[in-house]
Write a structure and sequence with these properties.
Layout (H helix, E strand, L loop, with lengths): L11 E5 L7 H13 L10 E5 L1 H11 L4 H13 L11 H15 L15 H10 L4 H8 L4 E8 L5 E7 L6 E3 L2 E5 L4 H7 L9 E3 L2 E5 L9 H5 L4 E5 L9 H6 L10 H32 L14 E5 L5 H7 L6 H8 L9 H7 L3 H17 L1 H8 L12
Parallel strand pairs: 1-2, 1-9, 2-3, 4-6, 9-10
Antiparallel strand pairs: 3-4, 3-8, 5-6, 7-8
Length: 395
């Protein structure tokens, strides 16, 4: 254990939510944490849980948990060099072929064996197989630097949100309403399944079932970490300001000249999938903590124990950042998204999930870093770190 740090307890978890390209923000928060950790610090997050793009970040960290600072540095390097064509086909022939296949499959009923999707994310599969050495997970578990890592995917046949977890010791599987916990040796297929945004990316077969993005119907995103033994959780979200403009909306504003575009409707659906459940779960957990504080410790029982929660989320709307970088999107995709309105201000939410370009991702990384450093005292308390006198500058 590094000198001057408080040992990370086995009940500390990191939760990384989903959100496509928005997950670059998480990397910025992690970069700040890396700056705060000592050179030889142990992994401060024995339990790591992720969903969708957050699942990929989570497993990347778990693979390098024996050298967490180096693992974060490598993950940051990958995100800083992103381009859309590393995630899904963005050239004109690829986009046109996938769109034609989608129409043939979904509208004409042809070629039913082909999974339904608007975009071809085979480049993401190649990236994961090239960059993620999953053998690092059992090594980290055996070394004691990791207790458990988990990713969540949604089963299209069963209608269940399934959390696949790999752990150092026996952890009982769980079954709740519409959500399961299943022990598994995590694979690249689990990550592709967890990040398969419905309609945009094809579902992925894991075992006997096809799975899609884990954020769908994930009513309790924090719950898997608690099942894995966590009682202290750091949640890194990807929503902007959920209450911004709420007062204006409640008071009523000027009538809109046009009905919402297809991109606006899609943006609200994406937000309801990736953001609303997490925010509701955090609110519920905070209320349960308040109730727990009214009960004597000896009377709380296992389900009434308080959970220490720290949430870090974007201080600025990510849609606005995406709009400034919309010209970075490959020309074929700009043409593809222009009709539904995704390249206009009202439809920028969709763009904020799909814009895997370095300029946009780097600005999200910078924002995540600054937001985390602005919460530095809280992070140091949560992680049990010594207070450093000088604030480091981001590389």
């Amino acid at each position: 254990m590094a000198d001057g740090t408080v040992p990370a307890t086995a009940d500390t978890a990191l939760i990384l939510s989903g959100g496509g390209a928005r997950a670059a923000y998480q990397v910025g928060v992690l970069s700040a944490i890396r700056e705060l950790l000592a050179e030889d610090a142990d992994n401060p997050f024995p339990v790591i849980v992720g969903t969708s793009a957050g699942a990929i970040n989570a497993v990347a960290l778990a693979c390098g948990a024996q050298r967490m600072r180096a693992s974060i540095e490598r993950l940051t390097h990958i995100w800083r060099g992103f381009s859309t064509d590393r995630i899904y086909r963005s050239d004109l022939p690829g986009v046109a072929r996938q769109a034609a296949g989608f129409v043939a499959n979904s509208l004409l009923g042809l070629d039913r064996e082909v999974p339904v999707a608007l975009l071809d994310n085979r480049p993401l599969g190649e990236l994961l197989r090239r960059e993620l050495d999953l053998d690092g997970i059992p090594a980290a578990l055996a070394s004691g630097q990791l207790r458990a890592v988990a990713v969540t995917a949604f089963g299209y046949s069963s209608g269940q949100a399934v959390t696949f977890y790999q752990a150092a010791g026996p952890i009982a599987a769980w079954r709740r309403h519409r959500r399961l916990g299943v022990p598994a040796q995590l694979s690249h297929a689990h990550l592709l399944a967890s990040s398969a945004i419905p309609l945009l990316f094809p579902p992925v077969r894991v075992g006997r079932e096809f799975f899609g993005d884990g954020a769908m119907r994930q009513s309790a995103p924090i719950s898997p970490a608690l099942h894995l033994g966590a009682r202290r959780v750091l949640v890194v979200g990807v929503s902007g300001q959920p209450l911004a403009g709420a007062g204006d909306a409640a008071a009523g504003g000027p009538p809109l000249p046009n009905p919402p575009s297809l991109a606006q409707l899609g943006g609200h659906l994406l937000n309801s999938t990736f953001i609303d459940s997490l925010e509701s779960d955090i609110e519920l957990l905070e209320r349960l903590n308040q109730v727990s504080g009214l009960v004597a410790p000896e009377q709380r029982g296992s389900y009434m124990q308080p959970v220490d929660v720290l949430v870090i989320a974007p201080s600025r709307p990510l849609e606005e950042i995406a709009m400034r970088h919309r010209q970075l999107l490959p020309r074929a995709l700009r043409l593809f998204l222009r009709g539904p309105g995704a390249t206009r201000a009202g439809g920028a939410t969709v763009l904020s999930y799909l814009l895997f370009e370095a300029g946009y991702c780097n600005e999200l990384i910078e924002l995540g870093y600054q937001d985390a450093m602005n919460r530095r005292a809280e992070l140091e308390r949560f992680l049990g770190l010594p207070v450093l006198h000088a604030q480091p500058a981001m590389a």
